[in-house]
Design a protein that fits this description.
Helix content: 40-55%
CATH architecture of the largest domain: 3-Layer(aba) Sandwich
Number of helices: 8
Distance between the termini: 49 Å
Order of helices and strands: HHHHHEEEEHEEHEH
Strand content: 15-25%
Radius of gyration: 20 Å
Shape: elongated
CATH topology of the largest domain: Trna Endonuclease, Chain: A, domain 1
CATH class of the largest domain: Alpha Beta
Number of domains: 2
Length: 188
């Protein structure tokens, strides 16, 4: 069954100016129908547009996501793991190396443990196998959840598998936003 999304969830993935256009359209229609409430009808969309603009300014434009993912795929393991762990450290997590199989890093924040698996960042499609390993590690380590990172995509069986597991899939635009601006050239 497909998940239904609200208009706000859809707009969050768009460039900020699209949401601003929606705000203007809502204002125009509302003003034509009942002028006293036009500003109040458009206000949520205007605020959302400002929020999206701020997020995109900090993380780069959505069009840059493909370029950032390509840059992430071209990195070797040391560079990639440094970018990912650095992003989580900036997010307030304590990052430590794996203490067992099935994951790469242990993230701790406010006493909550999350296991991070990102060793398959270059593959085109992650299947169920690595997610099973991560699920076993989450159970074994008594972690709150696990995160699987990939610059590629996740297979349909992999997406179905996580429906019953405490695992989050992180890829595509979300990974590009997490990684932030990735240098095009490798350091010498």
């Amino acid at each position: 069954m497909a998940k239904s999304e609200s208009l706000f969830q859809i707009l969050l993935r768009q460039p900020w100016w699209i949401t601003l256009l929606v705000a203007v359209a809502v204002f125009g229609v509302s003003h034509a129908v009942f002028p006293p409430v036009a500003a109040f009808m458009a206000l949520p969309f205007g605020l959302l547009s400002a929020y999206i603009a701020f997020k995109q300014w900090r993380g780069g434009a959505p069009g840059d996501a493909g370029e950032r993912l390509a840059a992430l795929r071209s990195m070797d393991w040391d560079e990639f793991s440094s970018v990912i762990t650095g992003a989580y450290r900036r997010g307030g997590y304590e990052v430590s190396p794996a203490a067992g199989p099935g994951y790469d890093f242990r993230l701790t924040k406010a006493g909550r443990v999350t296991l991070l698996q990102c060793r398959r960042w270059k593959v085109n499609q992650v299947g169920v196998g690595p997610l099973r390993d991560l699920a076993r590690a989450v159970e074994r380590e008594e972690a709150a959840n696990g995160i699987c990172v990939s610059a590629g995509d996740f297979s349909a069986p992999a997406r179905a598998f996580i429906a019953t597991e405490p695992i989050t899939l992180l890829g595509g635009g979300e990974l590009a936003a997490l990684a932030g601006a990735v240098r095009e050239s490798k350091p010498s």
